[in-house]
Amino acid sequence: MGVKSNTSGPNLQKKFDFSAPLPRPFLANLPARIDTYEEGVARYFRWRTGLDYYLAIDQIVDFVIATGRTKVIDMLADTAVFALRLAGRKAFSGRIYSFDTNVTLLERAKQRAIHLKLHPCIEFRHFKEARLPVPDGFAEVAVSFFDLHRHSAESYLAEALRVLVPDGYLILAEMLEPKSVWNTWRWTWKKFHLKYIQNKPTEACAVYYDKEEIIELFFKAGFRQVIIQGLSVPSSSRSGVFSLIAATK
Fold it and tell me: For the domain that residue 197 is a member of, what is the CATH number?
């Protein structure tokens, strides 16, 4: 059992050319608002973490490729940026299974994959929380991007452990918040802003953990090793850090 931690500054982030989706004749039959959904997600992510949405996802893509594993579960498709970015890498020759509870987002993702000619290696599937429709030990890598805070951590990590093969990896990206910010005016204002100004009540009710708590949760779930890498340098002792957390089953 081991724990490693390191922090890399913003200067280490590479610049990628991720072009915005083209005007979408292939999405013409979907509701018009779906075209702006990804832009809103990217804006919210920058507001919440201080990081670029696409650069953060590319860090995870790099991590997955570095494992050399080829059977990957994307635990929440959402914008499908992770699945599409991974599938588009020449260094990746495996298959991605991407899940979401929102059928409209899944249809959008499927059509984008077809448009980009990436559909042969991605399978988008609908599921109803909280159990993924795959057997035990199905995947070599499971990826969760900025989603843990919306769920019971114990149940979420138990499900991730279930779907992984022995020695499989869970790669999770999440905000780690120091306990010192909880029950302060800053945290109260942030929750108020999320609920009433940004109209995101689910995010306002989110639960975040500090580094020690997240490590304890992973070990209690049954993972053997946890590595944490912060993607930014905290501006103060009360600043949260968006982090990559890699754990081995």
Answer: 3.40.50.150
